[in-house]
Amino acid sequence: MRTLITGGTVITMDPATGDLAQGDVLITDGVITEVAERIDAPDAEIIDATGRVVMPGFVDTHRHTWQTAFRGVGADWTFMQYLVAMHDTVKPHNRPEDVYLGNLLGRLDALNSGITTMLDWFHCALTPEHTDAAVAALRDVPGRSVFGFGAGFRTSDPIDAEVRRVRSGLTGDGLVTMALALRGPEMTAMETVAEDMQLAAELGLRTTVHIETDGRPIAELLEHGLLRDTTTFVHANGISDDQLRMLADAGSSVSVSPDVELKMGIGWPVTGRVLAAGLRPTLSIDDCPAVGGDMFSTMRTAFAVQRGLDGGLSARDVLEFATVDGANACGLGSCTGSLTPGKDADVILVRADDLSVFPFNNPAGTIVAAGHPGLIETVLVAGRVVKRDGVIVGMDVPTLKARLLESRDRIAADAGIALDGTWRPTPGE
């Protein structure tokens, strides 16, 4: 099967392939086979990209997707209030079916806004059934997803058997793969961190870990021989410059969640400091109770903040963070993140004729500085059209919305919380 996307402005994010003011992208059996100014493919299905920007889909390297039903409730929360609300108060009332709906609608939201690849940093594994429900939701959404299994916080409970069980179920699963979401040196004993990382290495899993406070956690990991080029460190706001250089020397990656970090008081995003250390940062949404679920907002915040701090960041840099750099951090750089012949066709078409961005003079600059989810007209994952003419294909979204509202209302009633933003959880309650 062949598909020809024709007549659009093509941003490949691949220096070797280059960008085209007007060009075509040919897809054969789900793989990009050619990018050129004009391609003759009379047997191909045509997608007319006139007045559109054709580019790789976005990559979100860290999202707690199960929390989708509580979108906006935590807009005014601090980080500590978020922990109390979502982990101490809301999480215990989630049934497996609630997790399924949260993950399903959250992943659909991401896909709808052009995020073709997403790492689901899952830390609601109350039972094996909860974990299976989260994975099932990712499978039911036609996006590329990395299931980051997490054992929770502040625990040294053994996870070996459960990780192996989940891993065995995801072998050869196609678009859904697995990573291990580590408890990390701030949440458990170093001995447990070492055991978790050894398990991940044995199973061939990449790892992802939150590093949110001041101190020397990276130095401690280095001392114990636990820095890897397969680990993504989330946030890292309090980490000193010398420790960021340790991450660069190890080949690790950093996931910046600028909206959450600023709003919740975690700290200034480390985008520029990570670049100065010799790393390419990636971008992530984190949690939708506090912020929006689209990459446009995340890119704009990261861009504006770093420009305000030192003026040294370009829009093209930010677009790379959100695409090819994110794909590399997820271990998927060989198959996605750029419109490179030989890679899977994870492609989005962005409207360039909408009044909010017209005239579209500077494609990369306009997408980063003024883009929004309403511009995402068409989405392809591995060559399959999953959003066409602004509508997700093959999903009964109204019914799923109704089910999510029922789930949200039951959890809120059981937990005794208000949904209008008036509830202010405090640590210790």
UniProtKB/TrEMBL annotation:
GO terms for molecular function: hydrolase activity. Residues 53-386 form the Amidohydrolase-related domain. Keywords: Hydrolase. This is Cytosine/adenosine deaminase-related metal-dependent hydrolase.
